[in-house]
TrEMBL record, chains A, B:
GO terms assigned for molecular function: sequence-specific DNA binding
UniProt keyword terms in alphabetical order: DNA-binding, Transcription, Transcription regulation
InterPro entries: AsnC-type_HTH_dom (IPR000485), Dimeric_a/b-barrel (IPR011008), Tscrpt_reg_AsnC-like (IPR019888), Tscrpt_reg_AsnC/Lrp_C (IPR019887), WH-like_DNA-bd_sf (IPR036388), WH_DNA-bd_sf (IPR036390)
GO cellular component entries: cytosol
UniProt-listed Pfam families: AsnC_trans_reg (PF01037), HTH_24 (PF13412)
Transmembrane segment boundaries: none
Superkingdom of origin organism: Bacteria
Organism: Deminuibacter soli
Stated name of the protein: Winged helix-turn-helix transcriptional regulator
Domain HTH asnC-type: 7-68
Biological processes, Gene Ontology terms: response to amino acid
Amino acid sequence: MPVKLNLDKLDFQIIQEMMEDAEISYADLGKKLFVSGGTIHVRIKKLQEYGIVKGTRLSVDLKALGYDVIAFIGIFLEKSSLYDTVAKELKKIPEIVRLNYTTGNYSMFAEIVCKDIQQLRFVLHDELQKIKGIERTETFISLEESFARNVLVNDTAAG
Amino acid sequence: MPVKLNLDKLDFQIIQEMMEDAEISYADLGKKLFVSGGTIHVRIKKLQEYGIVKGTRLSVDLKALGYDVIAFIGIFLEKSSLYDTVAKELKKIPEIVRLNYTTGNYSMFAEIVCKDIQQLRFVLHDELQKIKGIERTETFISLEESFARNVLVNDTAAG
DNA sequence: CAAATATTTGAATAAATATTCAATATTTTC
DNA sequence: GAAAATATTGAATATTTATTCAAATATTTG
C-alpha cells in the first residue's frame, strides 16, 4: 500500500525541472523556484522516500552513436494467452527496448532501436519469425521524430 | 559535420552504466570497469565534447504520481503533406509526449500519457478531433508495460 | 485567536567528488 | 624496435554541494 501522497505545486515543479536536467544543484533550483536550497533538499528527500524519484539517468544522443533506426512493431499473437511466453522471448532481443500489452488491433506493441536497416531486417526476419506464437507483425519505421518530451506533471486529482 | 568518433569498449561501457544510473561517482564507476577514476573523467569529458552525452534526467515513477494510462495512437492524415501543421498542433497537447512520422499504415504515431481514461477520452475526442487534417486515429491502450530499457550500445560499425 | 505544529530560511559545516598532474605504462609510428 | 606520442594511474587538492540546524515564518487546530 503506497503512503498517502501529499504533493504540492512546488513538488511538481521540482520534478518537472529535474526531469529536464537533474544536474542542477539544490541552491540553483531553489533560486529558480523562489525557495531556499534547504526547502529543495527537504522536498527531494520526501520524494525519494515516497519512491517517486528513482535516481538519474544519462541522456545520450543515440543518433550520434550510430543508432539511427527507430521502429514500432505491432504484433499479432496466435492466442492472446501466449503473451507471457512471447514477451519472455522478445526480452532476449536487445534491440527491442520496450514492450507493451495493448488493447486494439495488435496484441502487443514493441519499440526497436537499430543501427541500420540491415540490423532491423535481421531482427524482424530472423529473430521475430523464430518466436512461436507470433502470427504476424506490422512494422512502422520512424522517418523523423517530431518531438519527445516529458509529460507535464501537476496535482489535479493526483495521488 | 560531426567529429569523427573513435569510441572504444570502455566508452560504451561508461555510457551503458550511466544510462542506468548517472549518480555513480567517477571513482566507483572506475572500480566497476577496472580503470582509474581519472580515466573515467577523461572519457566522460570526451563524450561530452563529442555531444554524445547530454546531461542527466531525473527518473520518476509516473504511476506513483497518478499517470496511469499510457496509449499509442496511429494517426491517418487526409494528405501526408499536412504532417508539419498537424505536428505543430499535436505539440500543443501536453499529454502527447512523443510524435513520430512513420512508414506503413499510419502517417504518424503518437504516444500519450494521461491520469485516467477520462483524460484520455477528452484528448482523443475533444482535442484530436478538432485538428484539421487528421482523417482518423486508432488507439492502443497499454494494459501492461512488460519492459522498458536502454538499447545495448557497442562499437560494431559505429560512428 | 492563541497555542501547537509544521515548514522554510540561510548560513555554517561536513562530506563527497571532480579536477589536476607528475610519474608510469601503453600504443603508435617510422 | 627505438623514439615519439598517447593514455592511464592514483594520490593530492580544490571545489562543489549536500547536509545540518537554530531561528523565523507560516499554517493548522481546538
